[in-house]
C-alpha cells in the first residue's frame, strides 16, 4: 500500500470512480483516515440538470442524489486509501437503510458528506457505511448503505 493520502481532488476522484457529469456528485474528499472515514464536499449549483424539474421555481436537490453523493464519497475514500487510481474500480449499491431527510439542499449550499466504514476490509467485496450529510453544520440527510466494491483486480 502506498503512502496514505489525506484528500482527493477532482482529478484523483475521476481516476478512482467512473462517474462523470451529470452524475459525478463530489468535488473533493478531505480528512481521509485510511478506510475508516472521510468527508466529501459538494458545491451545489443551479446549473445541475436535476434542478430543471425538481422543482421549477423551487430548486431542491433530490434526496436520492444526496445518498448517491455519500456513496461516491465512500468509494473515493476507500479507493484513495487502497491506491485504486486507474484500476477501474466499480461500486454497486446493495442496500440503503435508515435513510432520513431533515433539511432541503438548494443551490448555493455546500454539502458535506461525513462517511464512516462500519464493515469492510482491504480485498473484501462487501462494505457497509454510515453517512451523514450536512449544510452549515445542520443535518440534511443520513443513511446506512451497503455496497459491493469490484476493486478491479487485474
UniProtKB/TrEMBL annotation:
Homology family: Belongs to the thioester dehydratase family. FabZ subfamily.
Listed name of the protein: 3-hydroxyacyl-[acyl-carrier-protein] dehydratase FabZ
Taxonomic source organism: Thalassobius vesicularis
Subcellular localization: Cytoplasm
EC id: 4.2.1.59
PANTHER family given in the database record: 3-HYDROXYACYL-[ACYL-CARRIER-PROTEIN] DEHYDRATASE
GO molecular function terms attached to this record: (3R)-hydroxyacyl-[acyl-carrier-protein] dehydratase activity
GO term, biological process aspect, one: fatty acid biosynthetic process
Matching Pfam families: FabA (PF07977)
Keywords: Cytoplasm, Lipid A biosynthesis, Lipid biosynthesis, Lipid metabolism, Lyase
Positions annotated as active site in the UniProt record: 54
Function: Involved in unsaturated fatty acids biosynthesis. Catalyzes the dehydration of short chain beta-hydroxyacyl-ACPs and long chain saturated and unsaturated beta-hydroxyacyl-ACPs.
Gene Ontology cellular-component terms listed: cytoplasm; membrane
Enzyme class: lyase
InterPro entries per record: FabA_FabZ, FabZ, HotDog_dom_sf
Catalysed reactions, as listed in the record: a (3R)-hydroxyacyl-[ACP] = a (2E)-enoyl-[ACP] + H2O
